From TrEMBL:
The protein's name in its UniProt record: RDD domain-containing protein
Chief location bin: membrane
Record-linked PANTHER family: SLR0254 PROTEIN
Keywords, comma-separated and alphabetical: Membrane, Transmembrane, Transmembrane helix
Subcellular location: Membrane
Membrane-spanning residues: 34-61, 73-92
C-alpha cells in the first residue's frame, strides 16, 4: 500500500508493510537520478573504451591476412562484450548490491520494491530491460518525461517492475556518517546478550527478515526521532513474535535489540535476502 504525498517541492511516499509498519521515504527526482546516471555512464565509458582499445590492439597486432579473416568475428565479439558489460553493470549491481549502482550509492539513492522490501533479481532484470525503452528516442527523453509527471518519480521500467527509487538521506551518503550512527554492540555494555533457540528462529518469516534488514540498512537515512519511533515499532512486532517482549534489552534499547537480532539471523537469511 503506497500513499504519495508532496511537501516543499519534494515528493514523498508512505509505504505500509505487510506487518502494518509505516515507512516514509523521499523519492528521487530527475536531478539526483540524472547525476547518478552520469556517474555510471562515465564509468561505463571508460570500461567500453578499454574494451575497444584492447580488442583493437589484439586485432591490429596481427598480420593483414589474419585481420581480414577475423574482422567480422572480432566486431561481433566486441559488440557482444560491450552489450553484456553495459546491461550487466546496472542489472547485477542493483540485484546484488541492495538496489544500488556506484552512481546511486554516491548520490545516496536506492532502488526498492513498491512494498518497501529489497529489489529482487527479477525486478532488477525487468527495470533494466525497459531501460532501453526509457532511453527513446535519445537522452532518456521518454523516461524523464514519464518520471516528471509521475507522483513518485517513476520511469517506465519502475512502473513495469514495481520498483521505486528513494533518497536514503538529505544529501549524498557518506560512509563515515553511516558508520557513526551504528550503536556499539559490546558485551560489557549489554551483559545479557540476546539468545534465540531454533524454535524461535523458525518463527521468523521471510517478510520479518526483510522488514528487519530494510530497517537496519536504511536506519542512517532517518532522523533520530523517526529512527526511534520506527525502531520501537519493528522491535515490538518482532519481540512479541519471538516471545521476548519482556526482556530488558527490548524495553530499554529496541534499536540495539534489532541489531543483535539482525546479527543472529543474518547467517540463515543471507542467501535468501538478495
Amino acid at each position: 500500500m503506497i500513499e504519495p504525498t508532496q511537501q516543499h517541492h519534494e515528493r514523498e511516499t508512505s509505504i505500509v508493510t505487510p506487518e502494518h509498519v509505516l515507512l516514509r521515504f523521499q523519492t528521487a527526482g530527475m536531478g539526483s537520478r540524472a547525476a547518478a546516471m552520469m556517474i555510471d555512464f562515465a564509468i561505463l565509458f571508460l570500461v567500453n573504451l578499454t574494451v575497444f582499445i584492447v580488442f583493437g590492439l589484439v586485432i591490429f597486432g596481427k598480420d593483414s591476412e589474419f585481420f581480414l579473416e577475423t574482422e567480422n568475428m572480432a566486431l561481433a565479439i566486441v559488440i557482444l562484450v560491450v552489450f553484456v558489460l553495459n546491461f550487466g553493470y546496472f542489472l547485477l549491481q542493483e540485484a546484488f548490491w541492495s538496489g544500488q549502482t556506484i552512481g546511486k550509492r554516491l548520490m545516496g539513492l536506492r532502488v526498492m520494491r513498491d512494498n518497501g522490501q529489497p529489489i529482487t533479481f527479477l525486478g532488477a532484470t525487468i527495470r533494466n530491460v525497459f531501460r532501453i525503452v526509457d532511453g527513446l528516442p535519445m537522452g532518456y527523453f521518454l523516461g524523464a518525461l514519464i518520471s516528471f509527471f509521475h507522483p513518485q518519480d517513476k520511469r517506465l521500467g519502475d512502473l513495469v517492475a514495481g520498483t521505486i527509487v528513494v533518497v536514503e538521506s538529505g544529501r549524498p551518503a557518506r560512509p563515515s556518517r553511516k558508520k557513526a550512527t551504528q550503536p556499539s554492540l559490546q558485551k560489557h555494555d549489554y551483559p545479557q546478550v540476546l539468545e534465540l533457540d531454533e524454535r524461535q528462529k523458525q518463527l521468523i518469516t521471510r517478510e520479518d527478515w526483510q522488514l528487519l534488514s530494510s530497517f537496519i540498512e536504511r536506519m542512517s537515512s532517518l532522523s533520530p526521532d523517526k529512527r526511534k519511533e520506527l525502531g520501537t515499532q519493528v522491535a515490538s512486532l518482532l519481540a512479541k513474535k519471538l516471545g521476548v517482549q519482556d526482556e530488558p534489552l527490548v524495553r530499554n534499547d529496541p534499536i540495539v535489540f534489532l541489531h543483535f537480532l539482525h546479527r543472529i539471523l543474518q547467517k540463515e537469511w543471507k542467501l535468501g535476502s538478495s
